[in-house]
Inverse folding.
């Protein structure tokens, strides 16, 4: 994996939806391919995926505190 030097825009703004599997089908493939070749976006993906995993551990009481 290398830094993206192509014409593809970075996909950071789509990562939340990508992690939650909420992107339209026509956007999922391009995001996945971009993550394979862009170190910066791949690192951001890991951060977003970790945050989503941690949110799943919260319950209603945690959110009310």
């Amino acid at each position: 994996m290398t830094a993206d030097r192509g014409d593809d825009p970075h996909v950071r703004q789509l990562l939340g939806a990508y992690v939650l599997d909420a992107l339209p089908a026509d956007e999922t493939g391009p995001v996945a391919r971009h993550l394979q070749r862009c170190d910066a976006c791949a690192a951001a993906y890991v951060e977003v995926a970790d945050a989503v995993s941690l949110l799943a551990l919260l319950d209603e009481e945690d959110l009310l505190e």
